[in-house]
Amino acid sequence: MTNHTLQSSLGHYSFTSPFLNASGIHCQTQAELDDLAHCQALAGIVTKSATLSPRAGNEQPRYVDLANGSINAMGLPNLGYSFYLDYVQTDHGKPTILSVSGLSQAEMLTVLREIQHSGYQGLTELNLSCPNLAGHPQLAYDFAASKTLLTEVFRFFKKPLGVKLPPYFDLNHFGQIANLLNCFPIHHVNTINSVGNGLVVDIDTETVVTKAKGGFGGLGGAMVLPTALANVRALRQRLRPDIAIIGTGGVRSGADVFAHILCGADMVSVGTQVMKEGLGVYDRLAAELTAIMADKQYTQLADFRGQLKTLSASQRSSSRWTSQS
Ligand code: SIN
Fold first, then answer.
1. Ligand 1 contact via 24 beta carbon (within 6 Å)
2. Residues with Cβ within 8 Å of residue 161, at least 6 apart in sequence
3. pLDDT (tens digit, 9 = 90+) per residue, 210-228?
């Protein structure tokens, strides 16, 4: 096998591999975060999106595993931003990404002011895309409101700040969100959050499967991989080159990780598959990714990052390595 490295970076922050947890997955409590700190194949820790005050979240059932992914309506259960801000100010041996959110723009601004005034020097990520809060739309689908918020944020926030985006489905919308983000000193985008407001039906009981919002919930896992790849690719083609990308969504295998990076992801985070398989998934993904790289004689992720090719008129794709089989 060729000498290879999975070394990755997000801006000036270095990581031993491209692997992150998706915010919300195994990152809410001290014990869960400590598990992430001890998981060697995981290169960085992303905290559960935190609000100003602790939240219990939505009623159970609020996460359901599906054959082709998952549906959740968690409702931002978290211990409050001050717990996570304390946590990330302790050295855990790997970089941290402090994910924050809020039920209003005022709440988001308050939390970000506290982070700005703290001693935290790591990465912060503003979640503009939680789909599970009854009565609260996903902010990043409102381009004017997002612009107003980011204008206000960057008046005072001088630390590296990324944003977590929902999936977009229209080429025009990819252009609109990229043009907007390109006007701000955004450190990275994390794309995608779950595909909001799906509905899973149990025909035996003739009911929905999650409780909040009448059963509408965010979809994740294998079924969202093509949407995630499209968002990584479309944003990479439109964002300033210095804005890094965390690819999130649909990763089950090393081939899926390879596909995210081929579309332009700098790092890749894993959600539903951690719920299905546990933290051991990262060792498997690293081994599978390494095998694909060795087969293709790539020695570093930069050898293929963003190098996705399109098909000429007479060409058809055929491959042993498919990310969507
Ligand atoms: C949730 O807690 O409802 C999920 C968070 C998110 O999707 O942003």
1. yes
2. 112, 123, 124, 125, 126, 153, 154, 185, 186, 187
3. 999 999 999 999 999 999 9
Q: What is the pLDDT of residues 101-120, one digit of tens each?
A: 999 999 999 999 999 999 99
Structure-block tokens of residue 156: 């005072």
**Closest atom of ligand 1 to CA, residue 130:** 8
Helix (H, G, I), strand (E, B) or coil at 50: strand
Beta pairing, strands 8-10 & 96-100: unpaired
Q: Which residue has the tokens 């790092």?
A: 267
Is the CB of residue 127 below 6 angstroms from any atom belonging to ligand 1? yes
β-bridge partners, 195 = 219
Structural tokens at position 149: 């918020």
Q: % helix / strand / coil in the chain, to the nearest 5?
A: 35, 20, 45
Residue type, 312: S
- Choose which residue among 55, 126, 193, 210 to substitute to test ligand 1 binding: the one with the highest number of ligand atoms within 8 A of its C-beta: 193
User: What is the token pair recorded at 17?
Assistant: 């591999």
Nearest Cα neighbor of 127 from 144, 143, 105 is 105
